[in-house]
């Protein structure tokens, strides 16, 4: 009974959509973004933890491959960070859809990556972007995250 009550309380927070904002490049936004444990900005990201997210979108155009990027911004300053090379190959992390992507195809992209930061106690913007073969954004969004120590 207690387990059912806990699930009823916490499950919506785990699967609720996460609020996101458009990127400054005016790229299309995904239909929905879900970050585990985050239903309101800023998300809390613990150094040494894992950022686990899914995003849904409909491809505006065909592409043979997609590349993913995760950028961190402190105001207008981009903090140097790069996804591991294998995670940049977005086609390897599709739960729904496949590459090559066809125009109008529904895509669910999943990213699970280690939370690495040289500092804690600040709020940053995280920008997630998927680009096509030509480097043109298919989707892009920003959301806020507060970095906390382990």
Automatic annotation (TrEMBL):
<feature type="signal peptide">
    <location>
        <begin position="1"/>
        <end position="17"/>
    </location>
</feature>
<comment type="similarity">
    <text>Belongs to the NPC2 family.</text>
</comment>
<dbReference type="GO" id="GO:0032367">
    <property type="term" value="P:intracellular cholesterol transport"/>
</dbReference>
<dbReference type="GO" id="GO:0005576">
    <property type="term" value="C:extracellular region"/>
</dbReference>
<protein>
    <recommendedName>
        <fullName>MD-2-related lipid-recognition domain-containing protein</fullName>
    </recommendedName>
</protein>
<dbReference type="InterPro" id="IPR003172">
    <property type="entry name" value="ML_dom"/>
</dbReference>
<dbReference type="Pfam" id="PF02221">
    <property type="entry name" value="E1_DerP2_DerF2"/>
</dbReference>
<feature type="domain" description="MD-2-related lipid-recognition">
    <location>
        <begin position="20"/>
        <end position="145"/>
    </location>
</feature>
<keyword id="KW-0732">Signal</keyword>
<dbReference type="InterPro" id="IPR033916">
    <property type="entry name" value="ML_Npc2-like"/>
</dbReference>
<dbReference type="InterPro" id="IPR014756">
    <property type="entry name" value="Ig_E-set"/>
</dbReference>
<keyword id="KW-0964">Secreted</keyword>
């Amino acid at each position: 009974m207690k387990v059912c009550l806990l699930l009823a309380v916490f499950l919506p927070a785990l699967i609720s959509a996460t609020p996101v904002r458009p990127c400054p490049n005016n790229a299309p936004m995904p239909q929905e973004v879900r970050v585990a444990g985050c239903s309101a900005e800023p998300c809390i990201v613990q150094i040494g933890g894992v950022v686990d997210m899914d995003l849904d979108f409909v491809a505006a155009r065909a592409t043979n491959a997609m590349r993913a990027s995760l950028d961190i911004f402190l105001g207008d300053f981009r903090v140097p960070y790069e996804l591991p090379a294998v995670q940049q190959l977005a086609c390897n992390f599709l739960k729904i859809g496949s590459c090559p992507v066809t125009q109008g195809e529904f895509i669910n992209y999943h990213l699970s990556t280690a939370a690495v930061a040289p500092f804690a106690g600040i709020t940053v913007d995280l920008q997630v972007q998927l680009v096509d073969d030509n480097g043109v954004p298919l989707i892009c969004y920003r959301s806020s995250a507060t970095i906390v120590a382990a």
